[in-house]
């Protein structure tokens, strides 16, 4: 664990990923995903005051790059009102691109907007099933965020909406440009006597990595993907969630 010169910030070193010839996959993308050896994954456990994370390199670089290329060629992103959020009494353009997929009739409400789920593309179903094998949970929704470069970002927030199953970890798959992901405890964001001296945690999300945000993380910790002007590549993030169905749906 490396301490940064900035106050109260813990930086977690990245996992070294040695890619042997045997781990390279030259078949179809679907076949390569089927060959991912889950029992060989190296996991890092990250814990703090109510912070419970699991981090691993899920996909070898060749497979992650193939998946990124496929999604870049085949995904269309939301526009118009679906590309806005309602914050501080005003509608604002989302500083990134988004699209969502899921089971029939699913939607997800956040920041004043209701995001409908498009029909699952076959390749995302395969990725979903792979992640479900890891966690033991069924995911019925995925939100895809596209960051064109380091000027795109996501502000501090918690994925604590009532329509998310609180016991199911959010599974976050990163593709492309590595970016910093910062966690900050809710009590560290307060002012006055209620403010607590709790260190923030920064994690580098690498190409092909999987981050599991286990409960009660999203209840107690905010997270963000800050701007990074020195990051010039595209990043895709796929966050798989279990959305609760409302009565009558």
Automatic annotation (TrEMBL):
Keywords: Dioxygenase, DNA damage, DNA repair, Iron, Magnesium, Metal-binding, Nucleus, Oxidoreductase. The keyword Membrane does not apply. It catalyses: a 3,N(4)-etheno-2'-deoxycytidine in double-stranded DNA + 2-oxoglutarate + O2 + H2O = a 2'-deoxycytidine in double-stranded DNA + glyoxal + succinate + CO2; an N(1)-methyl-2'-deoxyadenosine in single-stranded DNA + 2-oxoglutarate + O2 = a 2'-deoxyadenosine in single-stranded DNA + formaldehyde + succinate + CO2 + H(+); a 1,N(6)-etheno-2'-deoxyadenosine in single-stranded DNA + 2-oxoglutarate + O2 + H2O = a 2'-deoxyadenosine in single-stranded DNA + glyoxal + succinate + CO2; a 1,N(6)-etheno-2'-deoxyadenosine in double-stranded DNA + 2-oxoglutarate + O2 + H2O = a 2'-deoxyadenosine in double-stranded DNA + glyoxal + succinate + CO2. The keyword Ubl conjugation does not apply. InterPro entries: AlkB-like (IPR027450), AlkB-like_sf (IPR037151), ALKBH2 (IPR032852), Oxoglu/Fe-dep_dioxygenase_dom (IPR005123). Pfam families: 2OG-FeII_Oxy_2 (PF13532). Substrate binds at residues 108-110, 160. It is found in: Nucleus, Nucleolus; Nucleus, Nucleoplasm. GO terms for cellular component: nucleolus; nucleoplasm. Its EC number is 1.14.11.33. One of its GO terms (molecular function) is ferrous iron binding. One of its GO terms (biological process) is DNA alkylation repair. Residues 138-244 form the Fe2OG dioxygenase domain. PANTHER family: ALPHA-KETOGLUTARATE-DEPENDENT DIOXYGENASE ALKB HOMOLOG 2, DNA OXIDATIVE DEMETHYLASE ALKBH2. Interacts with PCNA homotrimer; this interaction is enhanced during the S-phase of the cell cycle. Interacts with nucleolar proteins NCL, UBTF and NPM1. Interacts with XRCC5-XRCC6 heterodimer. This is DNA oxidative demethylase ALKBH2. It comes from Zootermopsis nevadensis (Dampwood termite).
